[in-house]
Specification:
Oligomer: single chain
Helix content: 25-40%
Largest sheet: 5 strands, antiparallel
Structural class: alpha+beta
Number of strands: 12
Strand order of the largest sheet: 7-6-5-9-8
Shape: elongated
Mean pLDDT: 82
Radius of gyration: 21 Å
Strand content: 25-35%
Number of helices: 4
Length: 169
């Protein structure tokens, strides 16, 4: 009876982005789920009209997942997958001639031109200069006088472009 709860614990240890839907015949487990703050979408008891509720929950989950933009690309035999919101900035390293994708948890060196990522991200990233793209969600300030972009993690990046503007939408 608690295997779904155990699985939710395992999921949340590593992932806070997944959508969890609890479907059970054990109505009494609802309080336990709420107390453990699994950040679940819903708790459905297998009684009257549970299929209708499950279908509705799955449709909501698909909308939530669709809102999270996932960036995918393949280099050689390796498939890469990132949430766009996890990427802080991408810059082109001149020595290795690789692009570096910087996240809070890793730096990934890839043999792709910067224009590849410009096309992938469109307006979600700001081109601070010809060799750097910055995730607009991560920017808290642009100081043209000091030529700096301040990010929400405390990092300051050099701003080279005079025409660099942050348009808040």
């Amino acid at each position: 009876t608690s295997s779904g709860i155990n699985m939710a614990f395992k999921i949340r240890e590593k992932d806070f982005n997944s959508v969890i839907i609890f479907l059970t015949a054990h109505e009494e487990k609802g309080l336990m789920i709420l107390e453990n703050e699994f950040l679940s979408l819903t708790f459905i008891v297998k009684k009257n009209n549970y299929l209708k509720k499950l279908k509705s929950a799955i449709n909501k989950a698909l909308k939530i997942i669709d809102c999270k933009k996932i960036v995918e690309f393949k280099i050689g035999n390796i498939q890469y997958k990132f949430l766009q919101s996890d990427i802080i900035y991408i810059y082109r390293e001149t020595v290795t001639r690789k692009c570096v994708i910087v996240t809070d948890y890793t730096k990934l060196f890839v043999r792709k031109p910067l224009c590849f990522f410009e096309e992938k991200f469109g307006n979600a990233f700001l081109k601070s200069h010809r060799a750097c793209l910055v995730n607009k969600e991560k920017i808290i300030a642009i100081n043209k006088g000091k030529r700096l972009i301040t990010l929400n993690n405390g990092i300051d990046l050099n701003l080279v472009s005079e025409s660099c503007e942050l348009n808040v939408e």
